[in-house]
Design goal:
globular, 2 strands, mainly alpha, single chain
């Protein structure tokens, strides 16, 4: 695998940290300026890996993130090369210190995932499988705003989407399989507790 692709997640964390170094508070548009406007998949990864951190406990963050991921996934499905977000979303911000704290918290797990990504089972990250995986990424966050009061709901969903998108982005089918496995486990547990 190319060297620049070996550090996908840590590279995204570096971009977030660079945005936090230059701006306080840090707006979505500041992060976007660091990763580029043709970076739909990396931005989905940024949003979901940040939601895996304690940031998901801040009221309103899971709902905002859900809308953002849905918009981004829809654009990825439609094949847009440059992303579009409404101005009010681009202006949403967090304190730089809080964002840096979350980046620091995520460094070790992201480095672990970066070390273990490589092209495997690439058919799971292309063609029809790519569209069905992006469809899952669009559907998973639909419940986050309603379930925001329950701890870990958005974190589990964000973890699932992060695995799926990391698999698509790095063409590593193992991570796509891991994401689908999390969907199956979550649905099984949900059905178990409902019955």
């Amino acid at each position: 695998m190319k060297e620049e692709n070996r550090h996908i997640l840590t590279g995204l964390l570096d971009s977030i940290e660079a945005a936090a170094d230059d701006n306080d508070p840090v707006a979505v548009q500041d992060v976007l300026a660091q990763i580029g406007s043709n970076s739909i998949m990396p931005l989905i990864l940024v949003v979901t890996i940040l939601l895996v951190s304690p940031l998901s406990g801040i009221p309103g963050v899971p709902s905002f993130s859900a809308v953002l991921v849905i918009l981004l996934a829809a654009q990825a499905i439609s094949g847009r090369s440059h992303l579009w977000l409404p101005d009010f979303m681009l202006r949403q911000s967090l304190k730089a210190s809080r964002l840096k704290q979350m980046v620091s918290w995520l460094r070790r797990p992201c480095a672990f995932f970066d070390r273990h990504t490589q092209p495997r089972f690439v058919w799971l990250s292309s063609g029809v499988m790519r569209f069905s995986t992006l469809g899952c990424c669009l559907l998973i966050p639909l419940g986050w705003p309603l379930l925001e009061v329950l701890p870990l709901v958005s974190t589990i969903g964000a973890s699932t989407i992060a695995l799926l998108v990391l698999g698509l982005f790095t063409r590593d089918g193992i991570f796509v399989i891991a994401g689908y496995s999390m969907i199956a486990i979550t649905m099984s547990l949900g059905l178990y507790f409902l019955i």
